[in-house]
UniProtKB/TrEMBL annotation:
The keyword Coiled coil applies. The keyword Repeat applies. The gene is llgl2. This is LLGL scribble cell polarity complex component 2. It comes from the Eukaryota. InterPro entries: Lethal2_giant, LLGL2, WD40/YVTN_repeat-like_dom_sf, WD40_repeat_dom_sf, WD40_rpt. It is found in: Cytoplasm. It comes from Takifugu rubripes (Japanese pufferfish). Residues 662-689 form a coiled coil. WD repeats lie at residues 69-110, 430-448.
Amino acid sequence: MKRFRRHGHESHRDKLKQELFQFNKTVEHGFPHQPSALSYSPSLELLAIGTRSGAIKLYGAPGVEFMGLHDENAAVTQVHFLPNQVELVTLLDDNSLHMWTLRAHQGLSELLEIGRFTLTGPPGAPPSVTRVTAVLAHSSGELLLLGTEGGHVFIVEVPGFRELEERNISLDQMASSVPDDYIGRRNLEHVEALQENPVNPDQVVIGYGRGLVVIWDLVKQCALQHIPATQQLESVWWTEDGQHILSSHSDGSYCRWIVGEGDVNEDEKSDIPYGHFPCKAISKIVQLPTEKGPPFVLFSGGMPRASYGDRHCITVIHSKTHVALDFTSRIIDFFVIRDGPQHKGHPSALVVLVEEELVVIDLQTDGWPVIQTPYLVPLHSSAITCSHHVSAIPLKLWERVTAAGSLQKTHYSKKPWPITGGQNLAPDPPQRDLLLTGHEDGTVRFWDASGVCLNPMYKLSTAGVFHTDADPNDNMNSGSEGEWPPFRKVGCFDPYSDDPRLGIQKIHLCKYSGYLTVAGTAGQILVLELNDEAAEQTVEAKIVDLLQGQEGFRWKGHTRLDMREEPVLSPPGFQPFCLVQCQPPAVVTALTLHSEWKLVAFGTSHGFGLFDYQQKNTVFVKCTLNPSDQLAMEGPLSRVKSIKKSLRQSFRRIRRSRVSLRKHHINNAAKLQEANARLEAELAEMELAPVQRKIEARSSDDSFTGLVRTLYFADTFLSDSAHNTPSLWAGTNGGCVFAYMLRLPNVEHRADEPVTAQQAKEIQLMHRAPVVGIVILDGHGVPLPEPLEVAHDLARSPDMHGLHHLLVISEEQFKVFTLPKVSAKMKLKLTALDGSRVRRAGVAWFGSNRSEDYCESGLVVLTNQGDLHVVSLPNVKMQVHYPCIRREDVSGIASCVFTKHGQGFYLISPSEFERFSLSTRHVVEPRSLVEVPLYSASSNQCSSQPDGVTRYPHSRRVMEHALLNDESEYLRDRCNKAIVSCTRPLFGSKKLLQLY
């Protein structure tokens, strides 16, 4: 390649790097790991989820996403939006409060932390005095009420987090007002619940753990009413008309209390919905009115303890309809979205956050069906076992997959997604991309990975081809008529696999022909074809013996799956027509498909083979098993036993060495000190050099040397430089590369004459490092195109006049050989640079962000250190290097998959993909704007303050946000009017007036 000199500034090559490469972690797809808190802002129409790792995530309309991370390594226990504002408050389990805002910057919003606060009690006070247990964001937008474990209620002004000591409600102050006949009046326990009167913001209800509920006047600073419940309190709810308070309790009961003058002695209604036997607590209760007819009553928990104590349920009661929604995991929280102005109309959707998924129920459609979520989909509904990305899907294939998927979604509600906050300003995706995930239950799920939202498109199940323990008539949503409680299963999280052998290990989709091949844990390889109509057909099976009759070996692992001999009914979509079953039934470790040649190649720890799926015949089989490799005969189940055995031996050796060390400790102490001193002196004299790992030749007796790591089809030169021929290349764990020359019949005779193969080359790498990738470069140094890519005019024909090169990617180095002689030309040793090993490699195209016509191909590499490298082709020079994944995150590194345009995905948790980009041109990231809610005349109701001043809620907050974030002139004008309307400046307003 032409070299460019430096002339006192950046070279041309450095400038080109800036145009091509730029590393960004762009968006997280999937469901947040270990969610711990939920909140919703009706004015912003945004959903917030906090997690145990300290993350806070906001979601609005599809594509509107924000994420923040607390500096503290603490779980988020509560999230509260400030009413009618763009701020929210989070409470962590270290008792710290944090203020966040959605700040507008250059036309886009960003989530920023703008303050933090921790309550401090009087000197010598126990921590329980200030340990926050309940938070109420007052409708004025300027106050937080903080209930504590010690029974106190602190009032704090926001956003400055200034404690208003004169307005605090102490436990002694409250206890002195409790009626004498209330049992245990001075043992009120912690503040369990705080809620504002919907019709009078000067009144709040305070619920104590012991059961006492008190209505408190914030202006008069006195108790207006006591509600002496005797059961342990779980939650309270003030009805919208302000006339009733509902309280739920630990014994599975809930009570309805009349709000009025004087203390309440008896409740209007007490009910244990699932009694008379002992029931679990009702942790939350909500009652919402409807336009006409009875209200909705919703509560979580309350199930009979002995019979259904393990169920996670939310009960919905409306008129004569009573349903116990049975969820797949523990309920974190729920809320209800309502229609109409100010979101005060008919309940439209129930949003439930459980530990493993988000479920949204349509409350306006008969039967209350589930609404399909456009994001937060539980990718791990069955554990992810592999991934496969396909870029630039043709429109016809996309439409056919979408149509097949829509037939699977008939049970979902037709209502649109109800959370619609913010504006998605991201440009439309330039192409259609698919992400395919294989799962432990034998399913392959197709995801629209074109944009910010990872949308589910279609699900393929392979279990129907085999006999399993699953009952095909089992319906999760079916319930017995008249059953009590009236359960209804909801949610799709199901981590239990009927048979672990069904697990998908490798996937390969040809986007041009519609052929798909998937391989599993028990050596099964299915070939499928896309069909728009349902079909019933027999799947033809071929058993392939990879040991080729070698004696002395006995497979100790799992047995192969039993295939159905009768015809299999397949719905529209991908339908299996051929099965290849490897013997022994070991995990398939490599798979590739060539749809133009109608061939599929597969490999396991015992060897590899080539199958002609047009004629349904095995072309050839190659055994790569080392005779001394006993572990390859045991399989994963037996391997667990051997690991336990080796661990026991290791612990015995450690114990023996400790005994001997004690005996010689005194004698060796002086020698050890001397050796350490000598070593320190030598290190001080040494110059710091790059970290290197000594490359040692690996023994051929190492375990799993025959394991096939990669397979590659290519039309290249193997016999001589004048005649190109189809070929198959295979790389093993022992550093061996096999090349087979293939002879394909003419198109007219392709269905009749057999495909033949002949081994042409065998390369043994010097250090026997595992081969993780093989690429062949044409005469211009460009990687060969994919099958059928040239035929569809999506790639240039490869150069067949110049010399082809073979690039072998091992764990330790990249080595280029000339073809057909297979002589070494150049290499790049990764281990000599930083001691890393290659874990993933793929070819990507990098387009310039300044020139539409310019692009380069490069090799994208992920190492065991979690670092990303881009290596130039064909001269294998290191271009850029970025840290990406923590080296301790072994599962994240193992799950990484690259795209053809410089992006990638890896699992940051069992349920979330992190998406990243190495390209300046192809970046998929949220670009969203959330505007400040402008209060209307109906919402801007005045409230009288103690000093007789009329205050307009939210005026200062709207003004502050507009002035500090330079919003539109229209909004600034509204702020100016709001300032004039206030008869006195509020906290912080003078400074803002000066700014204005």
